[in-house]
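Sanity check. The docking grid for carboxymethyldethia coenzyme *A depends on where the pocket ends up, so I'm generating a full predicted complex first rather than guessing from homology. Inputs follow.
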Amino acid sequence: MTAKKIEHLGIAVKSIEKAKEFYEGVLGLTCYAVEEVADQKVKTAFFMVGETKIELLEATSDDSPVAKFIEKKGEGIHHIAFAVDNTNDALNEAQEKGVQLIDKQARKGAEGLSIGFIHPKSTFGVLAEFCS
Ligand code: CMX
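Predicted complex below; grid placement will be based on this.
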């Protein structure tokens, strides 16, 4: 497997509406999509920065991974998503190399992508996502 590029950076925020004021008003970006991913208990908002996206993440329930993250660490960078050719192949290969997976199988994420997370304990403290 080769990580082809950073597909997006996930940033945990308390309020997408509030955070948008910075991304649009100061950085001059455009929010091109807002989508709820019920499975992950998050609302997402996407911005394109060159070839990479920024994904703002707002929790939709108290037991959302994003709510837990903000409670523990505060708002900030939540994960890095790497584009790969095939998410299931990348997950299998990582597992064979001793990496601890969160998702054993790819599932559907925002923008219809096939996504899978690997544990921050195996990635030097940064939650990582494969997507294709
Ligand atoms: N980045 C880095 N470290 C993280 C982390 C993150 N995003 N989330 C949790 N951790 C760390 C915690 O600080 C904790 O470390 P310590 O043991 O040193 O204290 C450890 O991981 C365990 O954390 P926890 O609070 O006990 O949380 P859980 O074990 O319940 O869950 C995790 C952690 C990563 C397995 C869970 O958040 C998860 O499954 N994440 C993947 C799904 C996800 O994040 N979805 C939201 C985004 C969806 C999208 O982009 O579409």
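Relevant for the grid: The mean pLDDT is 96.
Also worth noting: Strands lie at 5-12, 31-37, 42-49, 52-59, 76-83, 107-108, 114-118, 128-131.
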